[in-house]
Each structure stands twice: as C-alpha cells, then as structure tokens.
C-alpha cells in the first residue's frame, strides 16, 4: 500500500502524467488485511478497502496472485482465482511486497491440527473453532488452549484468549491458556527490562508458561512436549517463526535465513535489475550502526514508502532516497492487563498498563489503516520522510 501511494506521490511531485508513469497494484483482494490485529476476536472485520484510495490517486488495480516472475523479460504472470484466468503483465520496475508467512516445521500433526493467527483465513478458522467449542461438553481438552511460541505474536494471542474464551464458554469454564516456549525465558527477543512487565501481565491474565520445552507432536486431543509431557487440548495455536512469502524464491538474489531478499538502502534487490523488495520480503540496513529492519509493520510501512518512491524515481529520472529508520518502538498488547510500550533497540519501558493500551488501540485502529480516499491527503501520507517514525 505504501509503495503504491509513494510512487503516485512522486509522480505528482514530478508533474508526470499517468501515461508517462503507470502504477499497477496486483493483489488477491482490493483490501488491506490488518495483519497485526489478527490475534483479536472477529477477525473477519479486520480488513480495510483499498479501491477508493487507489482510484483517488490514479493507480490501476489488478485482482490476482502473481505466480511467476521473469526478471529477464521483466514480466509477471498473474492468476485470477475468480475465473482461473492467467495473464502476463510487463513492468519497467517491480516492487515485491508480498510479505511473509508463518513457518511451520515438519512437526508430526502440526499441519493437520495446528491453528494460527498469521493470515486472515487462518484467524477466521481459529475464531470459528473457538466458537464451536461452546457446543461441546466441558472437558480439559475443550477448555485448554496451547500457544506454541512465547514471542510477540504468542504473547498477544495468549493474553487475549482468557477473556475471549470466557465470553464463548461462559464464566464457569475452567479455562487454561498455556504458552510453550523453547527458550529459557518468555519473550526471548524482548530483553530484560520489559520481561517482568510481561510476566506480571501473564499472571494477571491467568496465562501459564512452560519454558525450555518445545512442541514435539500434535493430535486431535492434544500436544506432546519435547520432555514427554502431555497437554490435553483441542486448540493448539502455532506462533513460532516467520518466513518471507514464497514468491521471493523466484528472484535470483541473495537471501537471509528468513528467505528475505537482500536489498540496498534504496530497497533495490542486489544484482537484479529493475526489482525492488520491501516489507517482510526484504532485508535492509535501517541505520548506520549495522541494524536491519525487522519483519514488522512498523518497518514495512516506511520501507514501502521508500521502495515505491525509488522505483518511480528511477523511471522519472529524479534522485532516489536511501531508507532510514532511526526510531524503533514496540507496543505489545497484554490483554486485560493492558500493554507495554518500549522505545529503542534496548527496549526501555516507556508506558505500561492502561496508558500503553490506549497507544496500542490508536496504533491498531488508526495508524495501520489506509489513508482516507482523498488525493492530497493520501499522497501526503506516503512521503517517505514523513511516514510515521514514532
Ligand atoms: C498476529 C500478528 C501480530 C502482529 N503484530 C505486529 C505489531 O504489533 N507490530 C508490528 O510492527 N508488526 C506486527 N506484525 C507483523 C506485521 O503484520 C508484518 O510485519 C507486516 O504485515 C508486513 O507487511 P508487508 O506489507 O511486508 O506484508 P503483508 O502484510 O504480509 O502483506 C503482503 C501482501 O501481499 C499479498 N501477496 C502475497 N503473495 C502474493 C502474490 N504472489 N501475488 C500478489 N499478492 C501477494 C498478500 O495477500 C498481502 O496482501 C504482526 C503480525 C501478526 C501475524
């Protein structure tokens, strides 16, 4: 979304016409899936329309999924699910912004029995399953949810669940939510300062943790852990690990362990002419201290704004701008215990409880949504130097 907006912004700024620079967005649906919110109830409501904003900025929308990329011939093959039609679109510059997917290792039973909150359809499937539990007799397996992975997503989904399950199963159900985390501490990437806040929140929400053990196998009645322990559960949510979306594999560039394409500071894929990669699909340095952008919405929006701007700049013959993101914050939802807001790469805690929760709500309901469908406002929202750096 931001790549499209910023390319259109530069086209206007350079006084180029839509004949001189045509911008096309290819996507399965003309909507933004508000992915950072998929741990919440009612996931089917967590999309925002893009058609009106695209019309307002003269961007052509093509419905479909890119199945193949021919970087030599500079074209993509698009498949439209609605009518199974295949067609080819040529490009002068391609911005690959296909995001990421949850990584599911080959653990027995995971593919068949594991739920997730990674993609819209998966979050909807989980929500339907949780509601279907109300029609079953109370049992340990019905009333227990296991969350595999105690990182950002695992914590957000786990702390949301007790209240969500109480609403579905009633106040008398003996609800248990258990995080299984292979590392020795919860929130392995969060560092020492926010961890006590998170641990207290888990206690307040009644979320248990099993640390230092992994999920070894799943079946329809529960999960077996790596130490042999068994937890009876009809609901196991996998929240451990991300990989760049599979399309990145078709671009002949170097990749990191997450499958992200290595790009330079302009977001151009190294050694591949005409291709930019951005968001969760790209690994880019974000400052001069050797740090790289993370697979996060916070980085993806700014990266997108630079990628679209730079792809357009090359074609319009104006200078490109190097991506930078000096500010890094985290705002972790902690269910009924509020939230925790940290600033900086060393994650200094700046807000907790209700105050942090209000910021999380603002981020989740305003900042990560598309701009309003009004040309000047929409284009201004994608100025790479202005896209929120918090
Ligand atoms: C539950 C959850 C909570 C999160 N919480 C946070 C948070 O609090 N803060 C934060 O910063 N980040 C958070 N994230 C991470 C954040 O959602 C991602 O980093 C961000 O969405 C990445 O943006 P993106 O545009 O690169 O990719 P995506 O948002 O994944 O978008 C990729 C788009 O490309 C489309 N696409 C994929 N393949 C193709 C194809 N072949 N052809 C055409 N279109 C294609 C997809 O349909 C999708 O619309 C969270 C993620 C999850 C799942």
TrEMBL record:
FAD/NAD(P)-binding domain spans which residues? Answer: 58-304
Which GO molecular function annotation, any one, does this entry have? Answer: NADH dehydrogenase activity
Q: Record's InterPro entries? A: FAD/NAD-bd_sf (IPR036188), FAD/NAD-binding_dom (IPR023753), NDH-2 (IPR045024)
Q: According to the UniProt entry, where is the signal peptide? A: none
* Keywords for the protein's UniProt record, in alphabetical order: FAD, Flavoprotein, NAD, Oxidoreductase
Family as reported in the entry's similarity comment: Belongs to the NADH dehydrogenase family.
Name of the molecule in the record = Pyridine nucleotide-disulfide oxidoreductase
| Species this protein is from | Hypericibacter terrae
């Amino acid at each position: 979304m931001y790549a499209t907006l910023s390319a259109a912004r530069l086209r206007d700024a350079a006084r180029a016409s839509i004949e001189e620079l045509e911008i096309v967005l290819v996507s399965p649906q003309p909507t933004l899936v508000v992915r950072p919110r998929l741990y919440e109830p009612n996931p089917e409501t967590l999309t925002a329309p893009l058609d009106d904003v695209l019309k307002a900025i003269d961007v052509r929308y093509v419905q479909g999924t890119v199945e193949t990329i021919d970087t030599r011939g500079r074209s993509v093959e698009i498949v439209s699910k609605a009518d199974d039609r295949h067609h080819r679109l040529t490009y002068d510059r391609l911005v690959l912004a296909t995001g990421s997917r949850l990584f599911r290792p080959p653990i027995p039973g995971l593919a068949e029995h594991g739920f997730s909150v990674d993609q819209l359809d998966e979050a909807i499937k989980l929500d339907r399953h949780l509601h279907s539990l109300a029609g079953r007799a109370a049992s340990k397996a019905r009333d227990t949810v296991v969350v595999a992975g105690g990182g950002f997503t695992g914590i957000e989904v786990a702390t949301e669940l007790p209240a969500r399950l109480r609403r579905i199963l009633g106040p008398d159900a003996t609800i248990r939510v258990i995080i299984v985390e292979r590392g020795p501490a919860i929130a392995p990437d969060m560092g020492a300062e926010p961890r006590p806040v998170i641990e207290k929140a888990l206690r307040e929400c009644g979320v248990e943790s099993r640390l230092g053990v992994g999920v070894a196998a799943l079946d329809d009645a529960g999960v077996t852990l790596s130490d042999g322990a068994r937890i009876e559960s009809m609901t196991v949510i996998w929240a451990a690990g991300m990989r760049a979306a599979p399309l990145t594999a078709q671009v002949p560039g170097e990749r990191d362990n997450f499958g992200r394409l290595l790009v330079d500071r302009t977001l151009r894929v190294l050694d591949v002419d005409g291709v930019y990669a951005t968001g969760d699909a790209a690994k880019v340095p974000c400052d001069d201290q050797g740090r790289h952008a993370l697979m996060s919405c916070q980085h993806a929006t700014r990266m997108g704004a630079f990628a679209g701007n730079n792809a357009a700049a090359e074609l319009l013959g104006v200078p490109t701008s190097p991506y930078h993101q000096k500010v890094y914050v985290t705002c972790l939802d902690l269910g009924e215990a509020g939230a925790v807001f940290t600033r900086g790469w060393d994650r200094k805690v700046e807000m907790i409880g209700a105050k942090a929760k209000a910021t999380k709500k603002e981020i989740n309901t305003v900042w990560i949504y598309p701009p309003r469908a009004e040309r000047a406002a929409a284009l201004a929202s994608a100025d790479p130097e202005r896209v929120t750096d918090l």
